[in-house]
Amino acid sequence: MQTVWKGQIAFGLVAIPVKLVSATEEKDISFRQVHAEDGGRIKYKRVCSIDGEEVPYRDIAKGYEVDQGEMVILTDQDFADLPIASNKSVEVVSFVTSDELDPLAFSRPYFIEPTADPKPYVLLRDTMHETNRVAIVKVALRQRERLATVRPHGDMLVLQTMLWPDEVRQLSPSFSEDDVQLRPQELEMASTYVDALTGDFDPSQFHDEYREALNAVVQAKISGSEIVSTPEAEAPSSNVVDLVTALQASLDSAGERKSKARSGGSAKRQSTKSTASRSKSAAKKSTAKKSTSKRTAGKKATKKTPATKRTA
After folding, report:
1. CATH tag for 3-25+44-166 (out of 2.40.290.10, 3.40.50.10490, 3.40.190.80, 1.10.150.20)
2. What is the pTM of this model?
3. pLDDT digits over 272-299, tens only?
4. Which of 77, 145, 160 is nearest to 112 (CA)?
């Protein structure tokens, strides 16, 4: 995996040399913009809006547009002079419990790998495991200082960037709580439905159905076969007259799904058993056939041959 950043974690007076590699990858089908008539690739040119000339990449700078429509141009030196203390170091600011962190603020995760003696790395990892703490750190990635967390993940440490507090929007409900009155029966039915769907989280049960269908369309186009359209799932009705009735129907549907899942698993196990039984039966028949062949060959071999008469 490609290294995104190299530096060190400053754990008090202990420096831990590390590198960051991306912990996730988006598996999406990418497309090119092409001309619909002949499939030619669409190309873009960087053209100046004032003189209409194409501008090479080396002459392109960053500009900040002010209210009057004027542009303030910033050079590479302007960015180099910015005070980023955490340019090559992950600065540990504090340790907190994970319950104190808002999941809305989390962004991209990176695996942290040690690049030298792993002992300080293991020390930090195991200490956070035992104390159940998460480190709040500052790090400079791609010329920008970011807030992040460092936490244990199995045998690895993971750095996950966060949004700054002013980047998380604050939104209040558009309705008044005084206008909503929930009956105890509705709360009880909703809790029953939640309990019916409660179970251990298994990520392997989920997959990107849209990406699979899109890939099937692409493969059908390549092979020239017929494209089979996927039936659209029926959307639930929004005209709910009684919440209890709707929740009861949802509860019945959840029970049917669980029953089908169990029966499907039983059928699969039964199929596996019958397959194994057939394999054993075939193996026995093969063994019996071989032993019969051996006995027949043995009888033929032991059959007496007439003695040859000698002439005096």
Report:
1. 2.40.290.10
2. 0.67
3. 455 445 444 444 444 444 444 444 444 4
4. 160
